[in-house]
Task: structure prediction
Amino acid sequence: MDNSFCLEDVTILTDEQCGILYDMFNNLPLIADLTQADIFIDCLLNNQDAAIVVAEAKPCTTQSLYKNSVVGQIAYEDSEPGVLFSLKTGKPVIGSKGISQENVVMQQDIVPIKDSFHQTIAVLIKERDISQEILNEQKVKTLMNSKDNKEKDDVFQSVIVQEIHHRVKNNLQIITSLLRLQKRRCSSSSEAVEVLRDSISRISSMAIVHDYLAQHGIEKVDTKFVMEQISALLISLSNNQEKKFNVSVQGESLFLPSDITTSVVLVVNELVQNCIKHAFPDQQEGKIEINVNSRKQMAYITVKDNGQGLKEKRSDLKTSSLGLQLVEMLVEEKLQGDLSFFYSKRGTKVSLTFPISDKVM
Ligand SMILES: Nc1ncnc2c1ncn2[C@@H]1O[C@H](COP(=O)(O)OP(=O)(O)OP(=O)(O)O)[C@@H](O)[C@H]1O
Ligand SMILES: [Mg+2]
Result:
């Protein structure tokens, strides 16, 4: 729940009616995530000629239409005729298009919320950004009218490719937001929280590569740039108030094909996760350094921490875990590369070397 309001103060609803709405407040974030839209609940004010926003939830699965909270704002007949209509008649208003407070084209759907006597006590409002859809519709219209085959091809490509990217991104976001929800519900089991966090970071790392491709529209990805984004994400996910991690990415830009980048990024994701999880059991602060370099046809990537160091040789480390096995499989099978571990009391360094002869731009 992003925000909510004390209903008894502003409406003439009975305790039972308020209870129905308070129960709904808890589910608003879930509805917002699932529908990828901003969700609000509005009630009629005491004097019946305006409504007030009493609760809201912003989606985690897409960008919200609003920068600031609108809870407590008053909606008048002039500005929100659909909301007042639905509140007064108990009928839904679906599919109206409008401009949001932040000037984005959006679609608004409104459904009444009723009590056990079918009396309308509030409305549930969904607002979704449709600017990209409108743009695509316009492009398709241009396409239909164009006589130029080359232009037709270009427009078709850009609309279709964008739509596919959009869908893949949405799907990945929905998966991670569902896992985040599960993580919140498992807070009593630290093992479950950890497993879910690892899955979220693995999927999010792939989503970052995907997003890069969608935005830059090129085949080769700047691996260093992507790693910077992933390190920021891992730090925010590790979300540990007692410990402070500092992750830095050094070296040079390294342009690699997207499938190779995905493997490299997954390897680095596991290694950084390991630093966060295992390197600093008794330390308040930890430094993690990623280095990206290439020389002639070889790429060199290292992940180094200044923690307690690996306690055992790689061959003696536990084999029941997934992390390092995944790393070794990716390095051997996807990158045809080599992995070495450096042992020291002042930290762990893992270095990854792989050939890039025909892969660099
Ligand atoms: N940077 C590190 N510092 C200290 N110990 C480490 C470090 N990286 C790995 N280890 C040790 O190696 C073990 C194996 O790592 P691995 O990634 O395979 O498993 P995990 O992290 O325990 O579980 P998973 O990755 O499957 O969630 C860890 O349990 C830990 O004891
Ligand atoms: Mg691990």
Summary: Residues 7 and 18 are 7 Å apart (CA to CA). The first strand starts at residue 3 and ends at 4. The chain has nine helices and 14 strands.
